[in-house]
Amino acid sequence: MNDVASALPAITHQVMLLSRSELLDSALRHHLGDQPAYRVHRSGHLRGNVGEVDLALVDAGSYGQDECLDLIRQLGDVPVGLINASDDKARRLLELRPSIRGVFRPATSRATFVRGVRTLIAGGDWLPRPLMEKLIHRYRQLTRTSQAIEALTLRERQIMQLAGKGLSNAAIAAELHLSTHTVKSHVHNALHKLGASNRAQGAAIVLGAGSPTAGAPA
Fold first, then answer.
1. Which of 20, 90, 141, 202 is the least buried, fewest Cβ under 10 Å from its Cβ?
2. pTM higher than 0.70 for the full model?
3. How wide is the angle at C-alpha 192 spanned by C-alphas 186 and 197, nearest 5°?
């Protein structure tokens, strides 16, 4: 059995480093130099088909946010990890591209880096604990906001969207053929459900959820 296993070809995983830094390329090769299962190659930009790549590491220090997002978009289904990434930049990129599977800080140790690469290639995630906690907090905020918006009646949502466009209560009343008193009552109820302290805050929350609902009942 051992003879058969030793005769099988070793699996080599292709790791692409997207970076403009030769120094980072050298450091990455040093980190993985004694790991024969990984073959690293660096590129400043994507060229052609990336179907043979098992893991792409995007150097967040080499590119601006929009450049990082464009590279990640071009990578398609290839697992992506951010390398040389500050917590703030990593958080912003993760919020925009939840498909990012891993984040490596500038001071990540060699042993931690190797474990992270192994985890990402195996299909797992590798995120620093503080970043994970921030993302969970953000997710909970979005969940609460979504639940609050769902609790609004169609009319309350419609009125808050019109308020967000700058219409006064009187103008909204004229637009919807309602009394000003009725509009004020809807605004009051909507703000309570949303946990908002004023019309501007409530309208901003609702406008972020989508376009006005047509045919809302009075």
1. 141
2. no
3. 105
